[in-house]
Amino acid sequence: MSTTVLDPATVAVMAHRFDSVAREMIDTLLRTARSGVLNTARDLSCAILTHDNRLLAFADSIPVHVCAIHLEGAAMTEIHGHDLREGDAYLNNSPYHGGTHHGDHTILVPIFAEGEHLLTVCAKGHQADIGNAAPTTYSATSRDIYEEGAVNLPCVRIQRDWEDVDDIVRMCRMRIRVPDQWYGDYLAGVGAARVGERGLQRFIQRYGVAALKAFIEQWFDYSERSVAAAIANLPTTTVSGESWHDPFPGVPDGVPVRATIAIDADAGRIEVDLTDNVDCVDCGINLSEATTRAATLAGIFSSLGTDVPLNSGSLRRVEIGIREGAAVGAVRHPHSASVATTNLADRLLNLVWRLMAEARGDFGNAEFGLAIPASRSVISGRDGRFGGRPFVNQLMLGTAGGGGTSDCDGWLTNLAPQGLGTAYRDSIEVDEQKYPIIVHRLELMPDSGGAGRYRGAPGTICEFGPSDHAVGLLRAVYSSDGHVTPAQGVRGGGAGGPAAVWRLGHDGSIEELPQVASVELRHGDRIRAVSCGGGGFGPPEEREPEMRETDLREGLVTPAHAPPSHGAPG
Amino acid sequence: MAVAGLERVRIGCDVGGTFTDVTIIQESEPAATFKAPTTSEDGGVGGLIAALEIAAGDRGIADLLQDCDAFVHSTTLALNAVLQRSVPRTAFITTKGHRDILLLREGGKSEPLNLHIPYPEPLVPRSLSFVVDERVGAQGEVIVPLDGASVDDVLAAIAAADIEAIAVCLLWSIGNPAHELEVGRRIEVDLPGVPYSLSHQVNPILREFRRASSTVIDASLKPIMQAHLGVVEEALRSLGLRGEFLTVTNAGGVISADEARVRPVQVVNSGPSVAPVAARSAVNGQVDVALPEFLIVIDGGGTSLDMSIVRSGEIPLTSEYWLGDRFSGVMLGVPAVNVHSIGAGGGSIAAVDSAGVLRVGPKSAGASPGPACYAKGGTEPTVTDAALVLGLLDAEQFLGGRMELSADLARQAIHDAVAVPLGLTIEESAAAIMKVSDAKVVDLIRERTVREGLDPRQALIVAGGGSSGFSIDRIRAELECMGVFYPRVAPVLASYGAAVSDLVTDHRQSTFATNWHFDHDKVRAALDELLDRSRATPGRIGSGSSDAIRDWYVSARYAYQVWDIEVGFQVEEVLTPEGLGRLTERFHDEHARLFGVCDRSAEVEFVSWRLRTTRPTSSSEGAWSASLRGSRSARRIMIPDVGEVEAEIVPLEALEVAAEVRGPAILRGDYATLVVGPGSVAVRQASGGVLIRAIEESL
Asked: Nearest chain B Cα to A555, which residue?
C-alpha cells in the first residue's frame, strides 16, 4: 500500500475528476446511441471501479443501474482475471453474473498503467431489443430464462486489442431484432468506455499511480466518515414492514416484499435484512442481486441527507442481508429476472423510503408512483413509410409522479421510483417521426398526486395508437404495477392515484386492459394509459394555504378533491 | 483618458447587473474602456449615459455620438428576467391533448439521490397554457383541421386574463405551419397589439418542448426588450447618435436592434456569449507569440465564472443551452455560444461540510452583502476574502482605491467557518479555499477540453473579468497551458466584445439526404436557397465592415441516431460523389474524435444545412504605451502550495512594452489584480495586454 498522503483539497480535486469522466461517458453514450431508449430516454449509466471491484464514481447515472455495478466487475475479474489486458472489452447482461437484467448491456473495459490493471470503466445501456421470445425487453410472463429467450452474455470478451471479437457480434446479430440498431448501440457503449479510458489515462499521467492509489483509499475513508456522521443523526431504532406487488402472471395474489432496517446511531451503521422474502416465483419479476442491492442502497442513501456520497467506502457502513433464490434477493438460474429493474425493485425502494421516513420523522419522502405504465410500452411492427421496415423500441411517454418529501412536493417527471428523475422523456415529434404512431394525448392527471403537507407529483394520462403508415398491426407490450396498490403516503400523507389502462377501439368501444399485456392495435385503436401519482408527505391539513391555492389554480387538484384544511375559513 | 475627436468610432456597451461597461474603438487609438454603476431604476439608461460622458470627456457626449458609426448594445436584463421568472404575463397555446409540454419538459435531473430539489417552475404556468383543437402529422398532413371555435374560446380566455404576450407552438408546425399562422392571424384580429410568437418562425426544429421553450422565451421578452431597446435608442438618438444601433446575439454576432425587437430570444444571452468573441479579437495580432489551435476563455465575475473554448478562431455554438443551471433552468432551444458557468467567482462562499470537507460555492455572497471584507454585513468567507488574507489583493487599492477592504473581517470569517472546523491556521485555510475554487475551474476546463478531444497543454488561456486574476496563472500551471493572455480590456471584456463583434447571420435549411441516397440536385437547390436568403439580409455595418465571408456546415448523424454533429464543408463537395465521399469521411473522423468510435459501414444522414454569413468588422487599433508612472514595491504574500514568499508589486499601467516581471509578483490595476506565480514570467505585449508563461519556456 502506498504511503502517499494527499491533502484534502487534492482529494476533492481528484474526486471531481472521476465524476467528470463518468459524465463524459454518459454524454457519449447518449449522443451516439441509435435506439430511442438510449438516445432519447437516456436509460443508461456509466461508472468507474477500482481494479479490485470497488465502486468509485457514477455521476448522474440511474441508481438502480450502478449502485451495485461492482458485482459486474467482480464477474469480469473472476472469469477473465488471468487474461485481462489493455485493449480488451467485456460485454455482460447476465443477472446471474452481477448484471441488472438481460435488457441492460454493460461494456466493461479494464484500464492499465505500467502494465498494471488499476481501474475498470463500465458503460451500461438498456437495449431496444435483446432477442427475447416476445418483442420486449421486459418479459413479465416468462417462467424461466428459456422461455424468456434473451441472448445471455455472461461477461464475454467482446474486444481484444481494440478490435471486435466477431464471433460474439455475429451471434448477437443473428438473435437480436433490428441488428444494425443493436450494433450501433453496442458501438456507443464501447465509445463511452473508450472515452472514459482516455480520460483516466490522462488522470494517471498527470498524478501518477501512487497518488491514484492513495486517493482511492482516502476518498473511501472520507466517504465512510461522511456516511457515519449522517447515521449518527438518526434515532437508534429497528423498523420492519411489508409492501405488496400487484397480482402478476403466475402470481395471482401478488408478491410480498419485506424488509427490516436496524439503525445504530452510536456505531454509525445500518443493517437491512431482506432474508425474510419468498422464494423466486415463476415469472420474470424476480430481482437480481444487483437490483436488490441497488434499490436498497438508493433508498437508504437518499434518506440520509442530500449530499452523502455513495461508493464502496460509504458502503462499509450499510450492510444488506439477502438470500440467494429469493424473489427479493439474488435470482437463481434458471429463474427469470427479466423485469428486475422495475417492478419488485420499485416496491423494495418504496418500502425502504417509507420505513426510513417513519423512523426519522424529520426527513425523507413518501412512496413514488409505480412503473411501468402502458405509456411506456415496447412497441413493434412495420413502417410503411420505409418500405415496411420492422421496428422495435420502448416508448418513454408517460411518467409516474415522485413522492412528496419533508420539504418539497414530489418531482414531476420521475418515470419510476428507480429512475429518480434522471431519465429523459421522449419527444412526441421524434417518436412520430421514427415510428408509425400518433400520440393523441399526454397530459398530467389531476388529483393523482397523493395529498399531504407536501403533495405527491401527479401521474399522466396518455393516448397513442398506430398512424395510417403502420403496416398491419402495432404491438404494444407492457407490464405495469400500481393498479391495485398505489404509492403510499408517509407520516399522514395520502396515497397517490393508481395506474390504469384501456383500449379505445376504432369502433368506439372502451375496454379495460389487464396490467400485464401484449396488445395488438389496428388503425383507429388507441391505448389510454394512466400512470401512478406519488404519495404525500405529512398530514394534508398542514399544507400551506398558498400552496393549496396554487394547486387549484393550476388544475393539479380539482375542488372536489381538495383536502380539508385546519381552521381555514370556508 | 477621454476619446479624441475627428475619427469614426464604434461603441460597445454591456449593461450588467452592477456595472455598465463601455468600450470605444477608433482607428489609430487603442480601445478605451470605461465603467459606471448600472441604474436599474431607469432601465439602465442613466448608467449608460454616465459611462458615455466619462468616455467623451471635454469633447462632450453629442460630439462622440455624432462620430459613431455603430453602437453595439448588450445587456443581462432579459437574462435576469428569465432567471428570476419575472417576465411579463405570457400565455401559451398548443395542440389539444398536449397542454403540459412546458411542465413535462424532456425529463432529466441532476443529483439523482437528492430528492429534496423542488421541481423547476416553467416560464408560463399551467393555468396560462391553453389548447386549440387541431392536429398535424409527422408528414405535414392535417389529421384534425383547426377548429375555429376552439380558437375563439382560447382567445376569449386570454383576453380575460390580463396577458401581455402570447406564445404559440403546435405539434408539427415545422412540417405544416398553416394552423399556427391561422392562430397568429386570429390573435391580430381579436387581440390587436398583443405581441405574439409562432414556434415555426422562432425556432423551426423538431422536438416540441425545445421549440415551445424558445417560443415562450421569445414572446415573454418582447414587451421587455421592445421597451428597453426603445428607450436606449431614443436616448442615444436624442443625444446625437446617427450611426446604426445594434444588439449582440446569443450566437456572439450582432443584429440590428430592430431585428432583436422582433425576435428577442436571439439576444437573451448577449452578455455571456460575447466573451469568446472579445477574446478572439483581443488575441488577434496582439500577442507576440504564435497562436495555438485553440483558446480557453475565462471570464471571472463576482458570482460565477464563465468558460468557453475557441477553436481555430471558431466561436463554439451549442443547440442545447440552458438559461440557468442544466435541468433546473429554462431550455433556450436555439443555438447559443457554448459558455459554461460555474460558481467559482470572487463572491463564492467557502464552508466545511459535516464530514470535514471544504467546499467553495455555488452559493455566492453576490454584491450584497458581498464578501466579508467589503464590511457590508457579510460574515461568510469568500474567495475574495481568501485572496485578501493571502496578500494577493490590496486592501487600500481596491477599485482604484475607491473602496477600502477590511482584512480583519476577512480573517474573522475564515477563522470561524474554515480554520476552526479544519484545525488549520487562517492562512492555511485561505490557501485551501483558493485551491478548491481553482480546482473547480481546472476540472471544468479539463472536462470540456477532453470532451472535445483537445489537450489543454496546447492552449492559450485568455482571461478577463474582475476576479480571474488571483488564480489564472496557477490554473495555467496546473493545466500546463502554454500561457495566459490578459488583454488590456480584460476587466470590461463583454463591452469590448460588443464593439468588435461581426455582423453574423445564420440561415438553416432542413433537407434530408444520406451518403447512400444523395440527391445532388435537391441539396444544391437547398444551398442555393440559403445563398439567396443570405444575400437578402442587410450588408454592412457602418464604414468599418468589409465583404461577407460564407461558411457552410451540415448537421449529420448515423441512421437511427437522433443527436447530430456539425461538420464544415465546401459547396463543391456536395456536387459530386467524390466530394460527398470526402465529406462523409470527415463525419466519421469527427465522430471518432468526439466519441471514441465511428462506424464506416453505417449510413450517414445529412439532416440540416447551415450557411453562416459573416461581415467582419475591421478593428485596427492603435499602439498602446504605458501611461502612468508608478514605482515597483514588494511585500510578503502567500501562494497556495508554495507558501510565504516575497513578491514584487507592479502597477499594471506603468509596465512598458516588452518589460518583464518575474514571479512571484503582483500586477496591480484599477479593476483587477493579476498574480504571477513563482516560475512564471509576465511580459507586456505591444498591444498593452500581458502574457504570462512558465519561465523555462521563455528562455
From this structure: B127
